[in-house]
Specification:
This protein has 361 residues and is α/β, with parallel strands linked by helices. The chain has 10 helices and 14 strands. The strands form 4 sheets. The chain has a 7-stranded mixed sheet with strand order 2-10-9-8-5-3-4, with helices on both faces. A 3-stranded antiparallel sheet has the order 11-12-14. Strands 1-13 form a two-stranded parallel sheet. Helix 1 packs across helix 7, helix 3 packs across helix 4 and helix 8 runs parallel beside helix 10. Bound molecules: pyridoxal-5'-phosphate. Pyridoxal-5'-phosphate binds next to helix 3.
């Protein structure tokens, strides 16, 4: 059976080599005579998996000695509550920059639980850009400034992270974690659901700076407490073992393929192919994001009519290009081209776009 080019936004495509290895090891993991799904999370075999995943994650990011990497359940959405509850003590506040629907959800959740300030929103502009530092209105003394590095639905991405005189940033990196190098020292918390760029669904990576772990609010539900999870090496309760195992294989794959600098270069080449097809189309394809804030991961665009968009998605599917329909809230086309999407996939999509325009333009 042939594999398709999978442009799904998440759960999303995974590296072929990794899936092959999972298949090879499925019935007998490391000579145990059991699959990873069947062994105890407290066994030496599984402890080795989670320890390797934490250490590879830190090695790939670089400069992360002062951080712990947690592997938790509940999705990135649980961290919308986890972050403010852990970090914001009574009397303090946190600031939120809203550049898309997930960033808005993070803000709304925090606003129920603590005093959260909306520092800027691009909602009136349909989230087609990232604000300039001068536009962002911070409160007097926020515990952190929350932002979403890549806006999965609208297709914009922070090209660099702002510096607010040392106020720690908290970032939702769900859809571009490990897609490019970044300076972790700006962040007190980095979190990401794995199912876009890091692995299957079921596990959420939460990276927390050590000094933050020491100060977390202890009057919150145990399962949300970062210090408890850190102290127990993410095994306070049963973690999502199989997902963590696959994340670990992806981290090995990233390292073997040159780490984050190589990923960034590859992601730039890939996205340039698809954006190139948009820009060369004389307005047949209209990109949603302003050019300087375009995402390397989610390429969003429209066609002249919804009919044409429907037939674009259907025709692409017939040719083995899957998952190109935009998010239900915005419509249009979205090509999600995470780390595991190949250059060949993006070439094929760019060619298909030219051909579709030639026959329908
Ligand atoms: C998908 C996504 C989420 C939601 O993740 P869940 O793991 O489903 O909770 C949050 N933030 C961003 C940026 C996303 O892309």
């Amino acid at each position: 059976m042939e594999r398709v080019f999978n442009f799904n936004p998440g759960p999303a495509t995974l590296p072929y080599e990794v899936l092959k290895q999972v298949q090879d090891e499925l019935l007998d993991y490391a000579g145990t005579g059991m699959s990873v799904m069947e062994i105890s999370h407290r066994s030496k075999d599984f402890e080795a998996v989670i320890a390797e995943a934490e250490s590879l994650m830190k090695e790939l990011i670089g400069g992360a000695d002062q951080y712990r990497v947690l592997f938790l359940g509940g999705g990135a959405s649980t961290q919308f509550a986890g972050v403010p509850l852990n970090l914001v003590t009574p009397g303090r506040e946190a600031d939120y920059i809203v550049t898309g629907s997930f960033a808005e959800k993070a803000y709304e959740e925090a606003d129920k639980l603590i005093k959260a300030n909306l520092a800027f929103t691009t909602k009136p502009e349909k989230h087609n850009r990232i604000p300039k530092k001068e536009e962002i209105q911070l409160s007097a003394d926020p515990v952190y400034v929350h932002l979403c590095s890549n806006n999965t639905i609208c297709g914009t991405q922070w090209q660099s992270f702002p510096d607010f005189n040392g106020i720690p940033l908290v970032v939702d990196m769900s859809s571009d974690m490990l897609a490019r190098p970044f300076d972790i020292s700006k962040f007190s918390v980095v979190y990401a659901g794995a199912q876009k760029n890091l692995g299957p669904s079921g596990v959420t990576i939460v990276i927390v700076r050590n000094d933050v772990l020491e100060q977390v609010n202890k009057q919150i539900p145990t399962m949300l407490r970062y210090d408890i999870h850190a102290k127990n090496d993410s095994m306070y309760n049963t973690p999502p073992c199989f997902s963590i195992y696959i994340v670990n294989l992806i981290l090995r794959w990233l390292k073997q393929n040159g780490g984050l600098p190589a990923m960034e270069k590859r992601n730039q080449e890939k996205s340039a192919l698809v954006y190139g097809a948009i820009d060369a189309s004389a307005g047949f394809y209209r990109g949603h994001a302003v050019k300087e804030d375009r995402s390397l991961m989610n390429v969003t665009y429209r066609l002249p009519s919804e009919e044409l968009e429907k037939s674009f998605v259907a025709e692409a599917k017939k040719q083995g290009l899957i998952g190109l329909g935009g998010h239900r809230s915005v419509g249009g086309i979205r090509a999600s081209i995470y780390n595991a999407m190949t250059l060949a996939g993006c070439q094929t999509l760019a060619q298909f776009m030219q051909e579709f325009q030639r026959t329908n333009g």
